[in-house]
């Protein structure tokens, strides 16, 4: 099988067809129509074998994960995902592997009404690069720079599960089978908070997705907003799998500095808290308040039961260490 046969068999004519796609796969460029009074949100992520995923990950999970992490970026901006282009680098063409990989990608694309409109294929070390696009009403995009003193800090769900999955594979942590299945699914099949991101438009003052770890990602909001924060560590939500598998002290690195959970971390003015809870629960999201924005220049004060403690680990950073 050669490049264009691969494209025709596994991408062209498969998946959903959106009315706003004027020209999809097959030409030098795709053509799309952006709705009036909307801005185009664009994000690009690259996943590299041995850095972002394990070599033994199933192709279906990899296809899902590759697209999900991009949709999570759109969710963090409050955008509605619409179109993606995919650049796929493969060591060789394995039809069964590609079939399963594209099935995983098409499944999540269909769920979120996203059309694959183009991309590229080439030969080399396994790498997936996705450019995802979405639309957001003009001037309504969520940004990292809007947090204000007094705003409350929220997260949409439990943290640390993906990190626990990573370390269980690397270090062989003994985890009960049902818990291991849960955390592995959280890592392999992350769920982008697309609906929650759109609900947050007009309610949240800033937002980001937790991809590099709570401390690192909150730090981005604080730096861009020129404020500081107090975090109540005991308030950070964790799963039953995390609670059952590790003592609290052992949990700290996972909930504070590991990433790949793809929950949304956001700030909300006090006046919007009531409406926030009401609207998110309509979508089954029970966001948890974990702290408050304070004046300052980017510091994060960690409290446990009202007492300060130090935690030195930070989040993931490329060129500093390996991810998996």
TrEMBL record:
Which residues does the record give as Mg(2+) 1 binding sites? 44-45, 120
> Which Pfam families does this UniProt record tie to the protein?
AIRS, AIRS_C
Name the CDD domains for this protein: ThiL
Binding residue positions for Mg(2+) 2: 45, 73
Residues at which Mg(2+) 3 binds: 28, 73, 209
Give the note: Reaction mechanism of ThiL seems to utilize a direct, inline transfer of the gamma-phosphate of ATP to TMP rather than a phosphorylated enzyme intermediate.
What's the protein here called? Thiamine-monophosphate kinase
Name the species this protein comes from.
Pseudoalteromonas fuliginea
Q: What is the lineage of its organism?
A: Bacteria, Pseudomonadati, Pseudomonadota, Gammaproteobacteria, Alteromonadales
The gene that this protein is the product of is thiL
